[in-house]
Amino acid sequence: MTMTLERPSAIRPDTARMNPVQQSTRDAVDELYAGDTVTAFRAIDAATADPTESVREWELTDEQRQVWEAGYMVGFQMAAPALMAEVASLRARLEQAEHDADRYYAEMCRRPAPAEPDRPTFAEISRTRGEDDRAARHEATMDRMFPQYAGARA
Q: Can you give the pTM of this predicted structure?
């Protein structure tokens, strides 16, 4: 038996019911091979649109609802392994990100603040300029604002 890329142009009526490919999908593929890719992709999107988008569950009869729910459950069960694998992957990534965040935070808190350069204070600059009263006022203000450092000047 040889395989070809060609397909018969006419669909036999007895195989049309068993063929899962809709005629609109076939037309879209034909359009793609004709060269107009934009129109072809739009036609493929329209032909392969999710049929559940137009279904309103409250409008179904009891028999239709049973079929709908059975199909939903079968589809969910078929997708469950892939969904569970994705959840496990995302959970592992989240745990790694949280571990990294904790590690970065601990490292940030572990490091001491960089030492400030040894510069003269405003009071020392004022004394150098000969403004001793201004220096005394500044030191008194700093001692009031920060009593825990009062008298800690070198």
A: 0.32
